[in-house]
Amino acid sequence: MPEPSDALVFFGASGDLAYKQIFPALQRLVSEGGLTVPIVGVANADWSLAELTARAEASLREDGCFDPATFAPLAKLLRYVDGDYQDESTFSSLRRELGDSRRPLHYLAIPPSLFGVVAEGLAKSGCNDGARIVVEKPFGRDRTTAEALNELLHRYFTEDRVFRIDHYLGKDPVQNIMYTRFANPIFEPVWNRSYVRSFQITMAEKFGVESRGAFYDDVGTIRDVLQNHLLAVVANLCMEPPAADDPDAIRDARAMLLKAVRPLTPNDVVRGQYEGYREEQGVHPESRTETFVAARLFIDTWRWADVPIYIRTGKHLPETATEVTVQFRRPPQEVFGEIIPAFSSHLRMRISPDISIGMGVRVKRPGDRMVGDDVELSLSEHAASVMPPYQRLLGDALKGQSELFTRADLVDAEWRIVDPILGDVVPAYPYDPGTWGPDEAIGMIAGDGPWIDPKAVRRTRPGARRY
Q1: What does the pLDDT look like over 45-87, one tens digit per residue?
Q2: Is 353 helix (H, G, I), strand (E, B) or coil?
Q3: Alpha carbon distance 458, 467 (integer Å)
Q4: How high is the pLDDT of residue 456?
């Protein structure tokens, strides 16, 4: 068992990520008794400890989780170091603030361009001895830069001490995809190319880039969510059963699956850009960055050969929702001569904003005719009852538990898949806000369609029964 960290240092304490995610996660960890070690915020903000504490309180009030009784223990754990990350004295001050700590966890909630600067500063000051380091995505901009980033981190930290956060892996519904598959024996006999016709994954956002125009214009949808979040979903959906219940076995199974995914080609991708995107603040007036992407993946294994995986994600779509739909093959002959809808006989796993699992089946209508309706047997869970991903991931990193963090070979496998379609290898077609992207995405799925809209799956036709 790995030894738990005896201090938590988070760089970027004055930033947006700390305000929106880290402070609420720390408060919940302290409240539940899982965090009792010193918490050192580091920033170049000309702050004092009192100002860091006030920032934490403001964050919790906005999040709705502030309680004076539970905030007091968190405030007692807070420490602060102010300084330039390029200045060695900043890291000397950090070493003094850490005192007797010998196993700190360093969380880099900062731009990737500063990862090397901070990692080197930690090494020169001795703050990397016995330490773990947590880095946020993006892990590079392509396969080459990801390799360079890994080489840089490995100069000062061994791979087992590098924790790469993809917060999607910390989401309970994403973990539940893997759990549902392997905990229920009814699925394994049909979880293969003989019974599955196709997969669809939709990650839709109703809003645009909002205040993140400059960031988004530099990244785009492929780098922002396809290369990481959605390929993580594909891995959980299609991986082989892990050889053992341990973090490395689970990550080995994910890596084996992703290494078998065929690299994307221009024929497998449709890019889109919503009308009005170029007028957003921070966006280049002639930008060709995609705000929508539809992709068709194939996995070259015996289990999944020739089974298409359709992924669709974008901004300014009709819904904010993420869903996975497994479409099962129909029998070779319809016994009752009916025309069956394409999305009949499916398994639907909704990841957000609400959490549910639905099984699509056909049931006979009352009467003397052998005709039926499609219904969905659904189990729902309140999202509020689920542990927030940053709370789970920070807690796991402090304990040295690595299962929900991505590994160097996993990152490389993901970039290998998307590298051929980065940039302008296919045009970004315009689409109207509030629609499901450009019409070209419909043509891509034509033989296996239609696309199943998250809201549409949940509707019941007039006269059909509800279960």
Answers
A1: 999 999 999 999 999 999 999 999 989 999 999 999 999 999 9
A2: coil
A3: 12
A4: 58
Per DSSP, the chain holds a count of helices (H) and strands (E) of 15, 15
Instruction: Specify whether 229 is catalytic.
Output: yes
Judge contact between 322 and 340, C-beta under 8 A.
Answer: no
Kindly name the residue from 106, 154, 167, 229 that is annotated as catalytic: 229
Name the DSSP letter for residue 406: B
How many Å apart are CA 137 and CA 140, to the nearest integer?
A: 8
Q: What is the DSSP letter of 3?
A: P
Tokens of 189: 């006999």
Distances (CA, A) of 282 to 285, 333, 422: 9, 56, 21
Let me know how long the chain is: 467
CA distances for 312 relative to 63, 176, 270, 325, 430, angstroms: 30, 21, 9, 12, 15
Whether 439 and 272 have beta carbons less than 8 Å apart is answered as no
Question: Helix %, strand %, coil % for the chain, to 5?
Answer: 40, 20, 40
At 192-227, the pLDDT tens digits run 999 999 999 999 999 999 988 999 999 999 999 999
Beta bridge partners of 105: 8, 132
CA proximity to 317, closest of 203, 190, 217: 203
Closest CA to 256 of 304, 223, 192, 220: 304
Distance CA 381, CA 355 (A): 5
Q: Are 457 and 300 in contact (CB under 8 A)?
A: no
Q: Checking DSSP bridges between strand 372-381 and strand 39-43, what pairing results, if any?
A: unpaired
State which residues of the chain have pLDDT below 70. Answer: 382-385, 456-467
For residue 387, what pLDDT is reported? 85
- What confidence score (pLDDT) does residue 463 get? 38
Distances (CA, A) of 335 to 96, 331, 339, 343, 363: 77, 9, 11, 18, 14
Q: Are 387 and 395 in contact (CB under 8 A)?
A: no
